[in-house]
Amino acid sequence: MTDRSAAAPASGKLLERLLDGEPAALAKAITLVENAGAQAAQVLAGIQSRLGHALVIGVTGPPGAGKSTLVSALVGELRRRGKSLGILAVDPSSPLSGGAILGDRIRMAEHACDPEVFVRSLATRGHVGGLSSAAARVVDLMDAAGKDVVIVETVGAGQSDVEVAQLVDVTVVVCAPGLGDEIQAIKAGILEIADVLVVNKADLPNAERTMAQLEGMLSLRDPGAAGVPVIATTATEGRGVAELSDAVEARAEALGGSVRAARTLAQIRLQIADSAAELLRRRLNDSDDEGLHALCRSVQRGELDLENAARRYLSDYLVNKA
Amino acid sequence: MSDSTKSISPPPRVLVTKIGLDGHDRGSRIVAAYLRDAGMEVIYTAPWQKIEAVVKLAVEEDVDVIGVSSLATDHLLLPDLMAALGEAGFGHVKVVAGGIIPDGDEAELLRAGVSRVFHPGSPREDIVATVGDLATQARAACANG
Amino acid sequence: MSEQPVQLPLPGFESARAEWRRDYDGQAGQDGILRNRSGIEIKPLYTCEDWGEERYMEDLSFPGQLPMTRGIYPSMHRGRTWTQRQLVGFGTPEDYNHRLKTILAAGGTAGSLIPCNSVYRGYDCDEVELPLLGTCGAVVNTVDDMDLCYRDIGVGELSTAVNDPLPFTLLALLLAVAKRRDVPWSRITGTSNQSDYISHFVANHMFFRIALPGSRRVLVDHVEFCQTHLPGWNPISVVGQHMQQGGATPAEAMALTLCTAIQYAEDCRTRGMDPDVFLPRFTFFFDISISFFEEIAKLRAGRRLWQRIVRERFGAKNPKAWRFKFHAQTSGVDLTRQQPLNNVARVAVQAIAGIFGGLQSLHTDAYDEVLSVPTEEAARIAIVPTEEAARIAIATQNILREEAHLTDVIDPLAGSYYLETLTNRMEEEIEATIARIDAAGGMFAAAEAGLPQDMIGKSARVFQEKVDSGQETIVGVNKYREAEEPTTAPRPLERPDQSAMEAHLARFRAFKAERSQAAVTAALDILARAANAAPGTPGQNVYEKVVEAAMAGVTHGELCACLRRELGFGQPLVMP
Ligand SMILES: Nc1nc2c(ncn2[C@@H]2O[C@H](COP(=O)(O)OP(=O)(O)O)[C@@H](O)[C@H]2O)c(=O)[nH]1
Ligand SMILES: [Mg+2]
Fold first, then answer.
1. Which of B9, B32, B43 sits opposite A286 (nearest CB)?
2. Is C437 in a helix, a strand, or coil?
3. Which ranges of A179-240 would DSSP assign to H, the alpha helix?
4. Atom 10 (ligand 1) nearest CA
5. Are the C-beta atoms of residues A271 and A136 closer than 8 Å to each other?
6. Which residues of A touch B49 (CB under 8 A)?
7. N or C: which end of chain A has fewer CB within 10 A?
8. What is the C-alpha to C-alpha distance for residues C406 and C399, in angstroms, rounded to an integer?
């Protein structure tokens, strides 16, 4: 398989087209970034001055809660409010084959022909935390391409899906009645990251009970949770979606400007660490270095343990070549 | 097993979809699972996609191959899809069709630029290998074009 | 059941079995457990240890009597054979009229109206791409179109199976024609063949038009309307075929079909209708795969379960309500493009299974029309059968009946140790799936949550894996291939005459221009109001308004668009 990032169009021209908001350029740039192609760094450097326009919304919650359906309904509402949108939908890669079926678009058919709605599906490719490792950069690309709103839908694995809060302005946590155990997951993890809480499938029986349960849990959360609104929606019918949009916009307003711009230094340091680790992993995997092959063989023969192999790789090879 | 210690870089991206009016998806579900199990990333859609929606999807998802399943004459729209992809500057994307496609119509589709037509009973290995090869070709064509 | 003691120890039974075991166990490759498509273990030999005469009355009894295993009528096929029902569709209303006349001239009394895919999707002919028009069935959008379909034919003269998903616009157009010709509606007979919206949501997405809750309401309105106005009409046909062709195992397909029927019956009862009145009008439609004994057992077990369900769950007292009436079609999924004449043998085996299963009506596929696809799709002429293939399909039925004498004896396989054991095992398997659906809150809720879709997808993959690995043989495809593969002759898709189709479009536009726009607007307003009234509100039966609108000149596409708007667009639950 050829690496398609190897001979991609000149990054300068791509950057220009991307900043112009051309969908094909945005799509190619995402591919470059996802595959850590050669020009990815240049493109990313080129967009830095253009960031901060988009309001970035994260949508997380258990599988089947109706995230994709709700995103589609939210997109409809925001389109009516005149916004252009970028959507990043993440689905899991199979740990066995590395392949994936990316099906979130099934529920977004309504916007299939709307040029102001750009949707990209990404697979996790082994990344844990509910996102793909490229997610933060993809959000930046959509922002730079001029989207007014960017929505990130996570895998929905439950309590591990907290990473999204670090790269969005407003985090919407979606749950639905009748998911039973998932309430526990919400309690244990993702409730803490919610800026807005949604009980979707309000048309189902028990929706009110779920609302009450969540409100109860919220009151046990830290004092900062006081302002977290709980909204009932029926995504399939678009009910409650205008209220959700209002709540999201109010929240963003309250937080003042782009929240992403107000990341703490500690958060940024974490993100740099993540990016560096990812870069390293990729470089290690793609390298044709003979010394690296030799290291692998030593571990296979039992002459070297993993920890020391890693240390040796870092000191011997990487440092020399970085 | 090769003695290379490297694993394969970016998985092929394949769109599995249905155009036109029919909605039977047993075939497309199975093919999507085949491709996933072969390590590809499959974008799966609802049936009844408009041609312009398929083009938009191919562009946004930056796919290498589009697989269209047709069981009830919807393949008649494939020449329109080929033309629309070309117009959008995505002529490098390879298109394959599968399902009930009369032999007499196959030649017409191939002439229109469809890379391959799979008939009922096509072996799994053939489908997977063909799509994999076409993805490689599409990437090469994209890089050169 | 298998624990039943042998009533009369058979002389030599033990030693015969011991010898047989030694012989059998000595053969290579006999260690694995063999299972049928429904996952039931199939033993190499069945004896009176598995099923014995002492169970005769409980399991079988007599034809036309509870538990109905042996058939729903006292004389079954010896008394009346099944109806031969072949599908006709394709092209313009004139084309349909022509085919219908051919059938009537040949002595037929039953027709099947198969509309074009554009009609299935709820569109008029001016809303879809021209190349797709009429390729799969007749383009019928207006009362004038329907009138043309029945030119020189009395609408009350033949029973019609209308392949017409809800909101049943084609039946409405038919009723409008009857009104126009002064034919009383009581003389209109036939079946709403595609009323099973749950199967469309789950397995046959093409036919799904209106969101689930709206569909639920329209169906009950339709049943209510038919009960009042159309005593000769079967408003509900529950279609197991869609699920099985989507990949469900025979046991799953039967179970999901029964669950769907239970759901519809419950919804009708909730509306206040009497089960003893509406249940006798329920009909079913099944796929017959080539898994011969399994299919026979499936149909017998289904019949036995249905009488129990209607009596236990619905307290049905009317013996007509206990009857499990079904049409069956040989499965196109088993037919192959490779070595196509082999399909003649396959269709014959499938048909025999259906006949021994006690069907009321049969469609046999032509060997070259349907190839590994949902039959009711391709049968609608994706590939037109050659004249010879169509003749062979009909001849197969005649040969089985009149040369092979399959109908001389009622339920002739009854008492077979194997078949009775298998029928009981299939019944258990079906009941287990019914219990799963019950636990999920019934078929409506289960479908909404994607449970049957998940089951069907998994079963489809399991079966495909068996084919891929060669565990399940398909002659000419994964075994016994020939170097030079004969396939069907390269025939292009038969396309309707373009100029005729364009003339039809022009006529359609003229029809719309000439009708009373005021009447159309008024009728659509009334329909919208009914759709927004609470279900069951007196005077607000949605289907009644559909029929009235059809009489006012509203088209098929306009009716569907109105209800899509008022009741929600029918996006089915698509699952990868
Ligand atoms: N009854 C009901 N079903 C819904 C609602 N929203 C979504 N669904 C259904 O829930 C299922 C899962 O939805 P999806 O958006 O794919 O969930 P995700 O996995 O969280 O992205 C689908 O069948 C939707 O149609 C709702 O508001 N009410
Ligand atoms: Mg989703």
1. B9
2. helix
3. 181-188, 207-220
4. A66
5. yes
6. 112
7. C
8. 9
User: Is the CB of residue A35 less than 8 Å away from at least one CB of chain B?
Assistant: yes
Tell me the C-alpha distance between C454 and C365, whole Å: 29
Amino acid at C445: A
CB contact under 8 A, A106 and C576: yes
DSSP 8-class letter at A239: B
Tell me the residue range of the domain where B85 lies: 12-144
Q: Looking at residue A3, what is its pLDDT?
A: 42
pLDDT band at A184 (very low <50, low <70, confident <90, very high): low
Query: Which amino acid would we find at residue C75?
Result: S
Which one of B17, B19, B21 makes the best mutation probe of the C interface by having the most chain C beta carbons within 10 Å?
Answer: B21
In this model, does residue A48 exceed pLDDT 80?
yes
Residue B116 forms part of a structural domain: yes
Ligand 1: which residue has its CA nearest to atom 24?
A66
For A51-262, CATH gives 3.40.50.300
Question: C205 and chain B: CB distance < 8 Å anywhere?
Answer: yes
pLDDT digits (tens, 9 = 90+) for B99-109: 888 777 899 99
pLDDT tens track for C183-226? 999 999 999 989 999 999 999 888 889 999 999 999 999 999 99
Asked whether the beta carbons of A176 and A66 are under 8 A apart, the reply is yes
Confirm if B10 and B40 have CB atoms less than 8 A apart: no
Cα separation, C137 vs C556, whole angstroms: 15
Q: How far apart are CA A294 and CA A316, in angstroms?
A: 12
With vertex at residue A313, the alpha carbon angle to CA A311 and CA A319, rounded to the nearest 5 degrees, is 100
CATH number of the domain to which B53 belongs = 3.40.50.280
Q: What share of chain C is helix, strand, coil (3-state, %, to 5)?
A: 55, 10, 40
Report the distance separating Cα C539 and Cα C21, nearest Å. Answer: 71
Q: Residue B19 pLDDT > 90, yes or no?
A: yes
The rounded distance, in Å, linking the Cα atoms of C297 and B126 is 37
Residue B6 within any structural domain of the chain: no
Judged against a pLDDT cut of 70, whether residue A186 lies above it is answered with no
Task: Chain B: give the shortest CA distance to residue C213, in Å.
Answer: 20
CATH number of C67-469, picked from 3.40.50.1980, 3.30.70.2120, 3.20.20.240, 3.40.50.150: 3.20.20.240
Per-residue pLDDT at C130: 85
Q: How many CA atoms within 13 Å lie on the side-chain side of B128?
A: 17
Distance CA C222, CA C244 (A): 26
The strands making up C282-288's β-sheet, listed across from edge to edge, are C83-84, C361-363, C326-330, C282-288, C236-239
3-state SS, one letter per residue, for C184-244: CHHHCCEEECCCCHHHHHHCCHHHCCECHHHHHHHHHHHHHHHHHHCCCEECEEEEHHHHH
Strands (E), C252-299: 282-288
Our CA-based measurement puts residue B102 at a distance from the nearest CA of chain A, in whole angstroms, of 29
How much is the pLDDT for A115? Answer: 95
Task: List chain A domain ranges.
Answer: 1-50, 51-262, 265-321
Overall average pLDDT of the C436-455 stretch: 95
pTM for the model: 0.87
> Domain residue spans in chain C?
67-469, 512-567
- Å from A20 to nearest chain B CA? 15
Instruction: Report the Cα C268 to chain-centroid distance in Å.
Output: 21
Number of domains in chain B: 1
Residue C248 in contact with residue C455, Cβ under 8 Å? yes
Residue B107 domain flag: yes
Q: Six-digit token pair at C114? A: 């198969």
| Gyration radius (Cα) of chain A, Å | 21
Dihedral, CA atoms, C302, C308, C314, C320, nearest 10 degrees?
80
